[in-house]
Write a structure and sequence with these properties.
Elements (H helix, E strand, L loop, with lengths): L3 E6 L7 H17 L4 E6 L1 H5 L6 H18 L7 E4 L5 H9 L5 H5 L2 H9 L2 E2 L12 E2 L2 H4 L1 H11 L4 E3 L5 H18 L7 E3 L4 H4 L24 H9 L20 H9 L2 H7 L6 H10 L4 H27 L2 H30 L7 H13 L1
Parallel strand pairs: 1-2, 2-3, 4-5, 6-7
Helix pairs in contact: 3-15, 4-8, 4-16, 8-9, 11-15, 12-15
The structure holds tryptophan (TRP).
Length: 374
């Protein structure tokens, strides 16, 4: 059996550097490694709608943004199937059957859903008290999205799901569903494995304000579609070491976002090009720790490094931006390919569950005989 990748993103905004180090960069490498028989990259609009029912326009507008970000980073529709989740209705049918294999209390224990409920200010009790003060209740669709995600993964018989550690509970829940399904209905579904980012500094990029995570709502993101000038301005205001006031002062590298970004992005050749006085990032860090190295100098290096990485991405983006119709046509073809793959799995699922009545000649024959004998 070949190796198959399925992964994706919710189209709630443009993709940023956090996505790039956490997933996009890796996906392009995996795509070009030739190690995988099939790669499916999904724009998870249906999942995004589970907590954006009141704002479908936001999702609608961001589908093209995510597609442009994918293409400009080097995902290639010739090698990877790029598709839109809602255009593969087979996924809904699978999810509906999987719902019978998961208990409410199991869903309640999913730590990612738990923390997302808190983050979104959903209230678990919307039945009492002053209705004007009542929190927004949890939509059932949102609550059950881990089950829908299990159908995303299993529909394509994915063996490998490249994703961040926040997705671990989702993959775990998918594996449980697969085991349950296979033990009740017979070996049908493939058990997937998560593929976590490989390098510790790639796990999570902090925001430009030093907060744990880049997030659109915090306004601390550098987007892949930012111009060179926007990147320069954002880096110049970045959080460093608040106690490093004068250049002579010793500075801290840990928790200093500028150095965290250099950890994630800089390579030895960047030093040759932009900072020949230092052989490596370690030397630069040592000088910063000792004192005598100013933030501006380090930030200028980071600006050069980021723009060097982003320039080819910007160039490809500009080209795809001139052909929006072609991008949608590519997504339509991808969605058709994805749909055919999901339909095949769904047929196997229906057969395994024995709900394939019309093709089940045994069922019809045995009931014919039973009624004849009556
Ligand atoms: N939950 C993922 C996210 O929020 C998006 C997603 C939907 C996904 N279905 C998936 C990721 C299947 C991996 C596999 O980013």
């Amino acid at each position: 059996m070949g190796k198959i990748i399925l992964t994706g993103d919710r189209p709630t905004g443009k993709l940023h550097l956090g996505h790039f180090v956490g997933s996009l960069r890796r996906r392009v490498e995996l795509q070009n490694s030739g190690e995988f028989d099939k790669i499916f990259i999904m724009i998870a609009d249906a999942q995004a709608l589970t907590d954006n029912a009141d704002n479908p326009e936001k999702i609608r507008q961001n589908i093209i943004e995510v597609a442009l970000d994918y293409l400009s980073c080097g995902l290639d529709p010739e090698k990877s199937t790029l598709f839109i989740q809602s255009q593969v209705p087979e996924l809904c049918e699978l999810a509906f059957y999987y719902m019978n294999l998961v208990t409410v209390s199991r869903l309640e224990r999913n730590p990612t859903v738990k923390s997302e409920i808190l983050m979104r200010g959903f209230s678990t009790d919307d039945s009492e008290g002053d209705p004007t003060q009542r929190g927004k209740g949890i939509p059932v669709g949102f609550y059950t999205y881990p089950i829908s995600q299990a159908s995303d993964i299993t529909a394509f018989k994915a063996t490998t799901v490249p994703a961040g550690e926040d997705q671990e509970p989702m993959i775990e829940q998918t594996r449980e569903i697969v085991h349950k399904f296979n033990s009740i209905y017979g070996e049908t579904l493939v058990t997937p494995e998560i593929m976590l980012p490989d390098n510790a500094s790639c796990m999570r990029l902090p925001g430009t304000d030093g907060k744990a995570k880049m997030s659109k709502s915090l306004g601390n993101c550098i987007y892949l579609s930012d111009t060179a000038d926007e990147v320069r301005k954002k880096v110049m205001t970045m959080y460093t070491d608040p106690n490093h006031l004068r250049v002579e002062d010793p500075g801290k590298v840990e928790g200093n976002a500028v150095f965290t970004y250099l950890d994630a992005f800089s390579r030895p050749e960047h030093f040759e090009r932009y900072m020949p006085d230092y052989a490596s990032l370690d030397e630069l860090k040592a000088h910063y720790r000792r004192g005598g190295l100013g933030d501006v100098k380090v930030k200028k290096l980071l600006i050069a490094v980021l723009n060097e990485i982003l320039d080819p991405i910007r160039e490809r983006r500009r080209c795809f931006e001139q052909n929006i119709g072609d991008v949608y046509a590519m997504l339509e073809r991808g969605s058709e390919t994805a749909r055919a793959a999901a339909a095949e799995t769904l047929n196997e699922v229906r057969r395994a569950m024995r709900i394939n009545y019309f093709e089940d000649k045994d069922l019809i024959r045995s009931q014919t005989e039973m009624y004849k004998a009556k």
